[in-house]
What we know:
By secondary structure, the chain is of the alpha/beta class. It is 19% helix and 27% strand. It has three helices and seven strands. The chain has helices at 11-19, 43-52, 114-125; strands at residues 26-30, 33-37, 60-68, 76-84, 89-97, 103-105, 128-130. The chain has a five-stranded mixed β-sheet. A two-stranded parallel sheet has the order 6-7. A hairpin with a 2-residue loop joins strand 1 and strand 2. The model has no long low-confidence stretch (mean pLDDT 94).
Amino acid sequence: MTETPDLEQNPTIARIRASQPGAIAELIYFREELTVVVPREHLLPLAEFLAEDKKLAFTYLSDVTGVDHFPIEPRFELNYHLLSLSRRESLRLRVRLPGDSPAIESVIPVWPTANWHEREIFDLFGIRFEGHPNLRRMLLPDDWEGYPLRKDYPVEGPR
Length: 159
């Protein structure tokens, strides 16, 4: 069995805490993977810091995933999977969004590859990415009703 490390001693966490007070709401360490839970208003500034800081260099966004926890609030969750190629380190940022206002700032200015990830999440979950240059459906027809990966979406489809 592997011991859980003291996350406050992690150099990445220490740099985040020193530079971005309030950006860490919670730390999760599971199966040797580190997740930082971030309040939604801190996501973009933290993303900029993680990508631009030469000692961290989280310059690669490999994926963004959406989760619907309906009927639990906060209902939605976004997971940003980051890599620092030069340091061979990964980090996950998790942001929780309420069901009544699932919106967050786009991270395209930091990681342009977020474009397609954000569009897919918008298309299937209905989460809005403010500042996205082309937020429209990409998998479903423009006239499709609803968001099929929401847990309250009717199994038989829209009527």
